């Protein structure tokens, strides 16, 4: 039994003793926190979709495209707050940022059940978008600060699949509430989900307050030994650019990473709109499926998403390369969308296409890991590109469904399916360009973290704390030391 446990630990955390001890603690604290938050995020967003087709539409008098406007209001504010959210994580301890956002998000979700008009829900969604913006991109930034290239894809996949589980659970919860809690306490079933999700969020926020380790450079995690803190701060290597100054804007706006990674992620997001906006549920309604079936069957999309995400991420980690699985994802975009465009004569064809396309949610893990791979040399570039990657995505997603997937087109979304086919196909040539630039700049020594000798101390720590933090560390105030003061800068 001991031998089996040892082999399992080696498979999960590697054979290097220092890495194994550190990763075991991170995988039981940092990763569960972000995974649970993303799970609740999925439950919350699914609750609006489920509630809409389960009584909220009639109760709050949603008209025409009000449902689309509700999602658009949320997405616009969510997108705007992405880059400020990731940027602030480089100057404020992440623990404070995440917990404050979690608690506010919980309160806003609770208030939703008291709304009496559609416009009130639209406004609340907009406000909630601002406080939930940090959930995804912030987690991606923090995970990329703690895990190596050979570790990151799998951990990011675990984080992402909890979001899919949350979306699945949202449908199941609403289906269960329709049958069990409708009318309890004088409340319709669709209101109960907002109450339940709000209550679920608070203990997770408390868990984060206790276990978020901030960034490696803070050396603030109480559950890590002094040696593990030092190992975490140096094992990924040193960034080449670390300070907030006027050169930040030149470095960012002249980098190919800032443009290409967000652009390809945007194409992915537009392609999978065929899986969003209640498209499958509305199609099922036109075929005579029951309301419970409309809530339950689409959740299988997220089951295939989990399978695809974890499979592609593990393969990319083992290869320490992201382009091979990216090509497979690109071809799946084309095949699944082409089936929908062809208008299958049987329901089975539609179910197959929807579930096949579910596997293409994998870029949430694979392409964010790819972005971390090619921006790790520059802290600010990574922080801003992480936020921009989702912001640029949502800059299109906010209006795309209004044109290609309006609820008024249900159940015939042919123009949307064609749009998904085109955007999915465009990812393939872009993958080739990114691969070429990554190989070129790696060969030139432009990208990639610098090796660090732990014996040199703080002067070359991962996030570049510089001389001022060294003085603070000597005084014993490690956890409050800033990470964006004067720092070592390596010209390339």
From TrEMBL:
InterPro entries: MFS, MFS_trans_sf. It is found in: Membrane. GO terms for cellular component: plasma membrane. Gene3D superfamilies: MFS general substrate transporter like domains. GO terms for biological process: pantothenate import across plasma membrane. Keywords: Membrane, Transmembrane, Transmembrane helix, Transport. The keyword Cell inner membrane does not apply. The chain crosses the membrane at residues 30-48, 68-89, 119-144, 156-177, 189-212, 258-276, 296-315, 322-342, 348-371, 383-405, 417-437. Residues 453-492 are annotated as: Disordered. Residues 481-492 have a biased composition (Polar residues). It comes from the Eukaryota. It is a multi-pass membrane protein. GO terms for molecular function: pantothenate transmembrane transporter activity. Pfam families: MFS_1. The keyword Amino-acid biosynthesis does not apply. This is Major facilitator superfamily (MFS) profile domain-containing protein. It comes from Talaromyces rugulosus (Penicillium rugulosum).
């Amino acid at each position: 039994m001991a031998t089996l446990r040892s082999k399992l630990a080696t498979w999960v955390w590697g054979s290097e003793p220092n890495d194994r001890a550190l990763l075991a603690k991170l995988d039981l604290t940092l990763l569960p926190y972000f995974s649970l938050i993303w799970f609740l995020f999925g439950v919350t967003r699914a609750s609006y979709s489920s509630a809409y087709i389960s009584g909220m539409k009639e109760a709050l008098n949603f008209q025409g495209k009000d449902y689309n406007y509700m999602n658009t209001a949320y997405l616009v504010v969510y997108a705007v707050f992405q880059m400020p959210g990731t940027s602030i994580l480089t100057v404020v301890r992440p623990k404070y940022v995440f917990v404050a956002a979690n608690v506010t998000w919980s309160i806003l979700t609770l208030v939703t059940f008291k709304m009496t008009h559609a416009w009130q829900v639209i406004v609340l969604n907009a406000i909630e978008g601002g406080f939930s913006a940090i959930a995804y991109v912030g987690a991606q930034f923090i995970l990329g600060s703690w895990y190596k290239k050979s570790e990151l894809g799998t951990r990011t996949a675990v984080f992402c699949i909890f979001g899919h589980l949350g979306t699945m659970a949202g449908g199941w919860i609403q289906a269960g509430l329709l049958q069990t809690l409708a009318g309890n306490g004088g409340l319709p079933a669709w209101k109960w989900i907002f109450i339940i999700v709000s209550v679920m969020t608070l203990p997770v926020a408390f868990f984060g307050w206790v276990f978020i380790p901030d960034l490696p450079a803070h050396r603030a995690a109480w559950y890590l030994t002094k040696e593990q803190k030092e190992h975490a701060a140096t094992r990924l290597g040193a960034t080449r650019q670390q300070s907030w100054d006027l050169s930040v804007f030149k470095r960012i706006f002249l980098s190919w990473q800032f443009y290409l990674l967000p652009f390809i992620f945007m194409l992915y997001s537009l392609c999978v709109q065929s899986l969003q906006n209640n498209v499958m549920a509305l199609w099922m309604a036109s075929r005579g499926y029951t309301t419970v079936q409309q809530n339950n069957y689409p959740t299988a999309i997220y089951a295939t998403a989990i399978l695809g995400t974890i499979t592609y991420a593990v393969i990319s980690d083992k290869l320490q390369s992201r382009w091979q699985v990216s090509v497979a994802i690109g071809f799946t975009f084309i095949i699944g969308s082409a089936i929908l465009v062809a208008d299958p004569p049987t329901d089975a064809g539609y179910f197959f296409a929807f579930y096949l396309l579910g596997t293409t949610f994998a870029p949430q893990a694979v392409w964010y890991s790819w972005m971390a791979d090619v921006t790790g040399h520059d802290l600010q570039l990574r922080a801003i590109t992480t936020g921009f990657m989702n912001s640029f995505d949502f800059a299109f997603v906010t209006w795309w469904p209004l044109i290609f997937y309006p609820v008024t087109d249900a159940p015939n979304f042919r123009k949307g399916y064609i749009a998904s086919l085109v955007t999915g196909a465009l990812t393939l040539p872009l993958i080739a360009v990114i691969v070429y630039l990554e190989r070129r700049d790696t060969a030139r020594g432009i990208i990639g973290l610098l090796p660090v000798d732990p014996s040199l101390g703080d002067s070359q720590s991962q996030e570049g704390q510089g001389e001022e933090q060294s003085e603070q560390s000597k005084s014993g105030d490690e956890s409050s030391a800033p990470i964006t003061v004067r720092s070592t800068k390596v010209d390339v």
